[in-house]
Every structure is written in C-alpha cells, then in structure tokens.
Design a protein that fits this description.
The structure is a single chain. The chain is an alpha+beta fold and 345 residues long. It contains eight helices and 18 strands. It has helices at 10-20, 34-46, 84-95, 118-132, 189-203, 256-273, 282-290, 306-319; strands at 2-5, 24-27, 47-48, 51-54, 58-62, 65-66, 73-77, 102-108, 138-144, 152-158, 168-169, 175-185, 210-217, 228-237, 242-248, 296-300, 324-326, 329-333. The protein has a four-stranded mixed sheet, with helices on one face. Strand 4 (51-54) and strand 5 form a beta hairpin. It starts with a strand and ends in a 12-residue tail after the last strand. Keywords: Nucleus, Ribosome biogenesis. It is found in: Nucleus, Nucleolus.
Length: 345
C-alpha cells in the first residue's frame, strides 16, 4: 500500500490508483470537503470489488475492476460543491480501461468559477485524449445548463480501448481560429450578446476568425433554474491543438463587458504561456504519456502549475515513471498499461 501525506490533489491519486490497481492510503490534516465523498461514491459506482475506508485522518482506497455496470445507463448526482467537469476529467480517462462501455447521466453544475466548464471538456479536453487514442468512440452532450443551483445534466457515452498510443507533440503551430460558447440561464438574451461583442472587440486586434455562439437555457416545468451566465473560449492551432479558458459571472465580474474582456484576456495569456496544452489540461497530458505503450512520448509545455508538479510525484510513486525535462519538452517511456478486462467485439 502506497501512502501519501498532505496532498493537494487526491483526485489524481485515486485515478492513478484505480488504473494501476494498487491500494493507497491518503492522510490529510484537514478534510477536503463533501466533494471527496461524491468522488469516492462515483468510483464505487463504476467498479466491482472496490473497498473504501474513510475516517477523520484520511482514507484507505483499494480499487476494484472497472465494469461500468456492464454498459447499463447510470444516473449520478454530482452535488453543488464542485462542477460536473471536476468528475468528468477523471471519469473520461477511467472509461478507457473499462470492461464495457460507460453510459452515464451526470446531474450538477455545468459552469462555475473553480473548474473548467463542460464546453471546455467537449472542445479541448476530449481532443487531448484523442491525440493518444485516435480510435476512441466517445459522445458527450449537454442536455440542460446548470449554474449555482446544480440543475445541469450531461450524458456521456464512452467505449473502452485496448491501449494508449505513445505520442510526440512538440510544435503547437500558430493559432488559426477561436471558437466559443456563451451560455446563460434566467437572464436577458441581450446580456449574452454583450459578452460576445466584448470578446470580439479584444480578439479583433489579433485574429479575424472568431465565432462565439450563444446558448440560453429555456425554462422547464418543475425545475428551478439559477440565474447566471458564462463563456467558454477555445483557440485552435494549425496543428489541431486546442487551448481553452472559462469565465463566469460573479460578484467581482458583475457585468457582461467585464466577463467578456476577462475571458478573452485569459485565453490570450494561456496562448502566450501554455505551450501545446493549457494549464488545466497539462497534468492529464503527462498522465496519458505515463500510461501509454512502452515507447518514448514527448510533449512541450509552458507555464507549469503546482498541481502538475504534484501529479508528477504521484505518477512516479504509483507507476514508477519519471520524466526528462529539457527546454520545456517533457519526455518519458510509458509503463505499457493495457486494458485486459475489455470485452471482445
């Protein structure tokens, strides 16, 4: 059993533990919050034989086999502590190594101020995974928007694969176009148009190909929606790489012009400093390299976050994979993780 103390991203520990089928013990001085229980229950839902012991000092996690309920459609409530994307980032990678396809409906928050939005998952995170799994069959659809009240709903269909391919991604290429989604609930349609106009005012000095569409959630009988709006932006390079950022209405960003301008400036900052993948995705790109086939993988990153540094330590402790870093290029030889439980087609 591998022990971790004073961790800042227990979510990645649980992910690596499940993939490697190695038990872990996580000790923490302060309980992370209700979203830890939500994550553990979700992991139990998609596995068979998973054992979890939670107390005030930490948790002991013994992973099982990822069966995905033999492909049956499941429904799970993610709560209102963290957004649906917080759980989707882990769930999408685990679905690659399941016994059967994953079919699940998640209810909760689709846009918040902490995690990336579901739109960024669709437009940037899934294309990242497909760089390592070109034949991956996946579908993610937003059926209902949800802000602070957690009334959003998404449906995920994902088929397992046999093994992740080694990949070399060093040249990002120039940015050729910017796309985005401005979503809202219980607000005037004019507010969303003002956000889009402000984004375009910033981007017009740099690139002409900018297209941001609006998605206003319609009222539904029996559902109490929370008012709010947010924008998700994605920049695409000539080499097919995607860089994303999000911005949501808050007390500090209390008018559409501020939201639009902040989102546009965040995306420009990511383009300048992120390398081939943005800050929210780089740790998962490194994990995909570590569990790929036993060949050399290389990616170029820019500004490194503290979560990425912690993830590198977790990968070394659980998989025994170390990275060579030279001129912002991360390279490693994958551990050759294979999906032995996948059903034959």
């Amino acid at each position: 059993m591998i022990s971790f103390q004073q961790v800042i991203n227990f979510r990645e520990i649980l992910l690596c533990s499940t993939l490697s089928e190695r038990a872990v013990k996580i000790e923490f001085q302060q309980y992370p919050g209700p979203h830890l229980q939500t994550m553990l229950k979700l992991l139990q839902l998609i596995q068979t034989g998973c054992k979890i012991d939670v107390n005030t000092k930490g948790i002991i996690y013994i992973p099982g086999i990822i069966t995905n309920q033999d492909g049956m459609l499941q429904t799970y409530n993610c709560g209102v502590e963290r957004s649906i994307s917080y759980y989707l980032e882990i769930l999408l990678i685990l679905s690659l190594f399941g016994k059967a396809p994953l079919n699940i409906e998640l209810n909760g928050i689709t846009n918040d101020q902490t995690d990336q939005s579901v739109d960024s998952i669709i437009n940037a995170y899934i294309p990242l995974i497909k760089k390592f799994c070109p034949d991956w069959d996946v579908s993610l659809k937003v059926t209902r928007r949800g802000f602070l009240a957690g009334t959003g709903t998404i449906i995920l269909h994902s088929k397992p694969i046999k093994q992740i391919q080694a990949t070399t991604i060093i040249e990002r290429g120039p940015i050729c176009k910017i796309r985005g989604v401005c979503s809202g609930s219980k607000v005037a349609p004019n507010l969303l148009n003002r956000v889009v106009s402000q984004c375009r005012n910033v981007f017009n000095d740099y690139i002409p190909d900018v297209w941001i569409h609006t998605d206003l959630q319609k009222s539904q009988k029996g559902i109490e929606f929370q008012n709010g709006y947010a924008v998700s932006l994605v920049a695409e390079s000539t080499n097919g790489l995607f860089i994303s950022c999000d911005c949501e209405y808050s007390n500090d960003l209390n008018n559409p012009e501020k939201v639009g301008e902040t989102a546009a400036l965040r995306l420009l900052d990511e383009i300048k400093n992120c390398g081939c993948f943005d800050t929210t995705q780089q740790q998962f790109a490194l994990l995909m390299m570590a569990i790929s086939q036993r060949k050399v993988s290389q990616i170029k990153l820019g500004r490194i976050s503290t979560h990425t540094i912690e993830t590198l330590r977790i990968i070394r402790s659980i998989f025994g994979v170390t990275f060579n870093i030279e001129d912002s290029v991360f390279s490693c030889i994958g551990c050759g993780l294979m999906n032995l439980s996948r059903q034959t087609q």
